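A quick aside before the break. I want you to see a complete sequence-to-structure record at least once, exactly as it would be stored in a machine-readable document. Don't worry about memorizing anything.
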Amino acid sequence: MPDAGNALGRVTPRWLRTPAARFEALPEFPFAPHFHELPGSDGFQPRMHYLDEGPAQGRAVVLLHGEPTWSYLYRHLVGPLVQRGLRVIAPDLIGFGRSDKPAARGEHSYARHLGWLDDFFSARVPADALLVAHDWGGLLGLRLVAEAPERFRAVLVANTTLPTGERGAPEEFLKFRRWVTTVPEFSVGALVGELAQLSASVQASYDAPFPGAEYQAGPRALPLLVPVAADDLEGRANREAWSKLERFERPLLTVFGGRDPFTRGQERAFQRRVPGTRGQPHQILPAAGHFLQEDARAEFAEIVSAFAVNNR
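That is the input. The structure line, written in tokens, reads:
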């Protein structure tokens, strides 16, 4: 297999590996990389990158990012959690961050992402972990919670949902989906920066995993995988997952940005349907948009840290 740091970072025609040099000296991101090898195919064994910070025996808190970000999104949350004696595990979804990337959009599917993430959890995440899920981190993570609730001590959902397609999708999301899947070129950093005020260096850090357009199959593919019609196969699977979440009695906290155009109001479904939401200090952060980890970094870090400590 070619070296990961070669000029183009290429490994096979179907998979790409972002050169390691792209991740050197990122601002506010001093964390050591770790890699989990997934089951191989066509002679190549893809790697999923993850952060693993804090005491090995501490209660594990898993931070799941979404579209189009990576574990860099949680850089302001790692320190406060570790300072409280917690272990922080933050994977990059396949196709994002330092994880390997299928070169074709068609290599991405809801089921494949679930399989990759389930393999990672089974191998790398201790039982009884706390889960923090944002955006696609919820679309995937909540399916894992529904299938194996015993894995999770508590769950915090932030600006996410588990869409079934029965009510369509917000027009803001449909516009975003049309744009991100058809625009000839785009910058992930600029895209995140449109929804959160970021410095140029931070925008560049969100761009780091994607040195060329051929690396962007993941960010372009995931919006098309969101169920937006009632007959969507994964929409039906999500309805089944909701029926299981309606029996989830462990703590589930909702923290949503009040200015998020994509998930505004979705917290009510969790609070209405999931028993574990009862009595929890749910939060709407009025000044935060979709990326509340950026818009309300200190407030969000304190909420997550308190929830994790209370449920350790």
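Two observations worth writing down. The chain is about 35% helix and 15% strand. The longest strand covers residues 47-53. We'll return to this after the break.
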